């Protein structure tokens, strides 16, 4: 019953997280596009800084942006904030349901750091808060006046955080926490900076006062950061299904490549939506393509080199390795307390069952160390190499 409840909670909260994430990212991308698409035209009303025309759903839309309050404030003013808040709330709930609830399996890898669930959870929560504090201090430092330097320092901070997480958590949890830390920064930007400062600006405009330009500049800085961090944080979240990313020994370097590629792709759309043409749009896709190729090649490389298996590995030995290291979870009746049934329906009680999942085993336990979860059964590198040699040789029986 506990496992059923856990699965339903995970499914429903994940569903909510995807829905709210789509709403937040969709509205964010739309307003970035809208802001960049504004054009000045003759005959615009007083106070209008630009306008944009669009067609959708059988009708035409005419949007105008006022830099000062219109002559009459509308009775209903729409704010876009709960999309962000609910994305973070549902995301943190999902983190708790999957990673905190199953900390022994999903967060802790005792070959990385021998800690208990309570310590792992405390480090997780504290790191998200510390990440925001450090980022906020950077945004209040002299770096805020130099966007290039600010992005460079932020890049180094995130990559360093990825490296630090890798010294504490399993690869899966480390990678996800990088995404969670960035997402926390982004939502805190909305909750603590963008919306409060926008409320002050609105109040000043309604009262006929001239808003402090610093308020708009601060909100714009955070909004720009959110814009460029969106694609990388999405990659961090979906990468949990792909062990060649989080399972790599140098997964922090993968974070660096993804940050760069994601930011470059967003830059292309930002420049294009602002009316950029020609050489202004010529470099982004080639650069992003090169980074993507480098990313793929990097995941195939192992820093310490591969263990060479010189003798032939036969089915009985390979199956024995799998059953010794994997059967606690992947059995009809798992002995691992975190599972009431085999994860993903993968059962390894017979040689045929092992062979049927050979390519998955290769990806999860040989090419990466994603499995066993948290390496709770202490599978060795030698065992992984021998298992890989058996699969690559066609799984010989004798």
From TrEMBL:
<keyword id="KW-0812">Transmembrane</keyword>
<feature type="domain" description="Cytochrome c">
    <location>
        <begin position="300"/>
        <end position="395"/>
    </location>
</feature>
<keyword id="KW-1133">Transmembrane helix</keyword>
<dbReference type="InterPro" id="IPR009056">
    <property type="entry name" value="Cyt_c-like_dom"/>
</dbReference>
<feature type="transmembrane region" description="Helical">
    <location>
        <begin position="150"/>
        <end position="168"/>
    </location>
</feature>
<feature type="transmembrane region" description="Helical">
    <location>
        <begin position="174"/>
        <end position="195"/>
    </location>
</feature>
<dbReference type="InterPro" id="IPR010389">
    <property type="entry name" value="Urate_ox_N"/>
</dbReference>
<dbReference type="GO" id="GO:0009055">
    <property type="term" value="F:electron transfer activity"/>
</dbReference>
<feature type="transmembrane region" description="Helical">
    <location>
        <begin position="85"/>
        <end position="103"/>
    </location>
</feature>
<dbReference type="InterPro" id="IPR036909">
    <property type="entry name" value="Cyt_c-like_dom_sf"/>
</dbReference>
<keyword id="KW-0479">Metal-binding</keyword>
<feature type="transmembrane region" description="Helical">
    <location>
        <begin position="281"/>
        <end position="301"/>
    </location>
</feature>
<protein>
    <submittedName>
        <fullName>Cytochrome c</fullName>
    </submittedName>
</protein>
<dbReference type="GO" id="GO:0046872">
    <property type="term" value="F:metal ion binding"/>
</dbReference>
<dbReference type="Pfam" id="PF06181">
    <property type="entry name" value="Urate_ox_N"/>
</dbReference>
<feature type="transmembrane region" description="Helical">
    <location>
        <begin position="115"/>
        <end position="138"/>
    </location>
</feature>
<keyword id="KW-0472">Membrane</keyword>
<feature type="transmembrane region" description="Helical">
    <location>
        <begin position="12"/>
        <end position="34"/>
    </location>
</feature>
<feature type="transmembrane region" description="Helical">
    <location>
        <begin position="250"/>
        <end position="269"/>
    </location>
</feature>
<keyword id="KW-0349">Heme</keyword>
<keyword id="KW-0408">Iron</keyword>
<dbReference type="GO" id="GO:0020037">
    <property type="term" value="F:heme binding"/>
</dbReference>
